[in-house]
Amino acid sequence: MTVDTTAPASAPATSADLPPSNGTRVTNWAANYIDERTSISGLVKELGRKIFPDHWSFMLGEVALYSFVVILLSGTFLTFFFQPSMAVVTYDGSYAPLKGIQMSAAMSSTLNISFDIRGGLLLRQVHHWAALLFVASIGLHMLRIYFTGAFRKPREINWVIGFVLFVLALAEGFTGYSLPDDLLSGNGLRIIDGMVKGIPVVGTWISYLLFGGNFPGEAIVGRLYSLHILLLPAILVAALGAHMVLLIVNKHTQFAGPGRTEGNVVGSPIMPVFAAKAGGFFFIIFGVVMLTASFVTINPIWVYGPYDPSPVSAGTQPDWYIGFADGALRLIPHGWEFMLGPYTVSMNILVPVVGLVVFLAVVAAYPFFEAWVTGDKREHHIADRPRNAPTRTAIGAAGVTFYAVLWTAASSDLLATHFKLTIEGVITFLQVSVFVAPVIAYLVTKRICIALQKKDREIALHGFESGRIVRLPGGEYVEVHEQLSDYERWKLVSFDDHAPVMLRPNKDGKITVPARLRARASNWFFEDRIVPVSLTEIEASHGDQLTQEQVAVESR
Amino acid sequence: MAEQGASGSDVQKYDASVSAGTGVVTSDRIDNPGFEPFRARVSELDSKKEKANERRVAMMFGLSMVGSVAAIVAYIIFPIVPGDPGSVRTNTFLLGLGLALGLFGIGFGAVHWAKALMDGHDLVEFRHGTRGSDTTRAKAVEVFHLGNKESGIGRRTIIRNTLIGALVLFPLPGIVVFRDLAPAADPNDQLRHTVWKKGTRLTKDPSGVPIKASEVTLGSVFHVIPDGLNDRQDKLEQKAKAAVLLMRLRPEDLHASKEREGWSYKGIVAYSKICTHVGCPVALYEQQTHHLLCPCHQSQFDITHEAEVIFGPAKRPLPQLPIAIDSEGYLVAQSDFHEPVGPSFWEREH
Ligand code: FES
Question: Under an 8 A CB cutoff, do A262 and B284 touch?
């Protein structure tokens, strides 16, 4: 491996030139001690000056990673006080309005964490806010990867691992939300119970086994606790490790820019710049979560009270990341349940569940689909600007819109009451939107991308309009165009160009069905295509350009 | 170093033996102009600015120390006073503020240090294909060959096949032992019955006070549980099936079918409160329209027509509890529900 990570020539003389101080001697001794027992110097040599490119959007994944660390730290604290038991106790803590009320030990210990342990409420809120941030940043990180095409070869597998992390984060969120055994979380579990019962053939039994008998039973909190603090985090940490290792193996993508090629990576070395920035960023994220947690109450379970299957208040919302599933349930029209002989088939549950699973499967499989369409076997390390892959960007926009409609549907009742609409009207509108809005988003996004590409092309060839009108000696008025520097232009012209495949018979002289499909798909992807500015075009455009200097010369 | 990465355009970086698929490969592309000349930062040019930045970073680290100590102080001098929610707020707020300062000091200090004082040159590292080199791959293949040869796994098919069989079977007991996650009894039976039976009094939720028919005025609605529920061990499980809503309408507004004519008492009707969609409590009653609304997914049930669904994802009407009055004028159940309550399940009508 050739790594050009030597210090710049201007660097000051290193400490090696000076006689070692006491501190240096201790460090040297410690380094030697460890290396003789672990051979860690190899790792340091290999990774210490690895290069990380810089872009704000590359920090989204970091946010996810750091909020996970915050979750682990605050969660560990909470486990020391939380009792994952549904045994009925009489609450006798500091929160007066609930004194003497019967509730589960889980709820009671959560109240104790909130009202009797110093810093308990703070860390509960740190844990919850960090969890919300974790899911949100994973979502945004995935969108960044998607819209810049950073899932292309060789990163398809890491995309899938990242997707698994996303699903695990949702599962962690839901199991954690259910632990305090308050009214809201119990209601959430009730909905899960109802959904599980809707699964054909095995649903009744799965629910029965899950809850250890009839809903709610006395087992579920303890079981979810095992999942929440043991099984899911173990898988999550393992997947996270694999995600990081592949990140190092594949190296980070970078945006197109002068000097950046598919064959290099340009940026700051881990030691010291990236380590300082990333390490500092961790503390900033932690600080933001801490500040939010000390200012803003989240999940005030004492307001909701302990779980009881009977009361429920209107307008209660699940944590935002579960919203899309709840919205999908709401959009099913009346009457979607039928009998299959003596058996009940609940399409009103199956359709949303299967629909969401398919949606997630499409997300996970997208990189393989695009790889099949393009047939491109090259490695890609330059991140696309979204506009330069119009069809991909448009598909992404359609997916985001679909998700957004489902998410909105989860608040259909609030929409109706806030804007004084009928609930029937809101639901019907959303039922139509869930199909129509993604299509509109697709078409509009694609047009916008192509328009932006055209503008880029225009600017690369003819420069900016400077707004200066000049009168030439012949009496003619022209607007002066300011040319781009080579560096600026490079950002606009260096992108991957794809053309639809031509349908040709294979060597047996046949046109196979897969080939036909692929041709169709590639046509869909690339027929509206703006080619990057070529060398010939640039040279030609320089000929008929009036640059400032020329104007200056001519008007003299 | 910059120039080293700048040679040639993207296109030349691709290995020609790898298919570009639909990718257009042309030689008529603009060349990569190479790196922009490095622009030094002010602090690198001006030693006064450098000193100022140094001071700034140290100050942030210093503030962090102040914050962490302040957090400990806040923890000690603002304890939680039992029964005073204000003290919880103060403790949370000040402790959090101290901790946040401790974190931000380190965070902003380190980032500022990196941005203002550390070497700002972009460095270049070359990529090499992810795939192992041909020799490495040949060696890996060789390892598998040797493994096969020395163990004979390919040759000794009987060993291989029995091993596969054993590996397939060994996890099965691990699945089977999960059967006892739930009791032995069949869930279907339990889903079909609630604690309501002939003569069980309707009582108020949550107090358990019996309800006289005369209390139920026109237009009123009661949240109801069966008498004796509060004393049961399995209170929540039973309540999750037995919760009932009681309403009084004008008798002429009720459109009861033949077989249900005797199920109400002077316009008083009782329906299961558990939504037939996925089981939320259907708690919102609109007096004007006599509609019940489920707050979870907005299914609406028309009480004047035996709680049939008029909107929303639920399919089946809420089951009705047949009621009457006993000799003292209290409302009682005539029997259990005549069908399973709550969400649908596969064997429901079996
Ligand atoms: S639970 Fe009542 S509508 Fe879904």
Answer: no
